[in-house]
Amino acid sequence: MARTQKYKKIEKSFASKVHAAFLSFFHMIESAALHVFKFLDNKLTIMIVPHSQEKVINFQTNVFSLGFGIILIFGIISSFFYFDRRAVGSSAEISKLTSKNRETQASLDELRDENTNLLQTAKRFQTSLSQSLSLLGISESSQVSQASVSGSDLSSLFNTRESVTGSLKETADVKELTCYLENAVQPVEQIGKMLENQNSLFTEIPSIWPIRNPNAHISMAFGPSVHPITGQWYIHKGLDFSTYRSGDPIIATANGQVVTVGYDASFGNYVIIKHKHGIYTRYAHMMYSIVSKGQFVSQREVIGYVGNTGITTGPHLHYEVHIGSDVVDPAKYINVKLSD
Questions:
Q1: pTM score, two decimals?
Q2: Contact 280, 249 (CB under 8 A)
Q3: Checking DSSP bridges between strand 268-274 and strand 239-242, what pairing results, if any?
Q4: H or E segment at 98?
C-alpha cells in the first residue's frame, strides 16, 4: 500500500513538471511573438528632402509595412527577370521552329516536284507498256485493267479530283501509282518470259554489231552511194563499220556455220557464215580470219580482225546480210539509227 502511494506521488510530480515545462514553453513563445509584433509595429518616419527649395516630403509607416513592401518590390523585380528570360527562351525556340518549318516546307516543295516528275514518268511508262503489250499480243485488259477495278489505274491517277489538295493529294497519287505498278508486274514478267523463250531466236539472227569496240561507228550506210574510189554512183550492199584503226575484233552476229573463208580482189580477206532461216552474213576487208570452213561459231565469237585488204580507202569492216539470194539492209537487224 505504501509502495502504491509512493508511485502515485512520483507520477503526480512528473505530470506537474511536464505541465510546468509546457506552460513555460508557451509563455516563451507568447513573449517572443509579442516582442516581434511590437518590433514590427514600431513607427518609422521616412523623409524625402529635395535638393531644391521644394517642400520636404515625409510619411510614416511601421517596420512590417516597410519589410512587406521591400519583399513585394523584390518579388516583382525577380518575376520580371524570370519571365523576361522565359520570353527570350521562347523567342529563340519560336525562331528555331520557324527555321525548321521553312526547311520542311522547302523539302515538301521538292518532294511535290519529284512527285510530279514521277507521275509524268509513270504516264510515259503506261503508254510504252500498252504499246509493248499490244505489239506482243498480250491483252492489257486482262492483266492491267484489274488495277482499275480497285481504283488504281493510271487513268484515275491522272484525273485526280481537284478537291484533293496539299499533302493528301500527293499521298493519294503515290498510293495509286504503287497499286498500278504492283498490278503491272504481271504483264512485265510475262514479257520477260516471252523474251526468255525467244532468246534462241535472237542468237540465230544477226542482231548485234559485228565489231567489239565502243568507238565503232557506221562510216557508210546501205543503199545508193558515191563510190569513194571511182566517184560513180552504185548500190552499196552492206554497212561499213570503222574504228579508224586496224586490229579490232570482228564477231559473229549470230550462231551459224562458216561456209567460206577466202580472198577477193574487191573484198580482200572475207568470211561468209550460214545461219538458220536461210540467212547469210559476209565480213570483208579483214586483216585476217581465225576460223575455218565448216566450223560452227556462236554469236559474239571472234572470227577475225578489222583490216584494210581489198579495195578500201582505210581500215574498216564491210558487213552484209543475205536472205536467200536477196541482199537486205543489215540495219534492220542490228537495230541501229543511221545518220541522216
A1: 0.47
A2: no
A3: unpaired
A4: helix 63-136
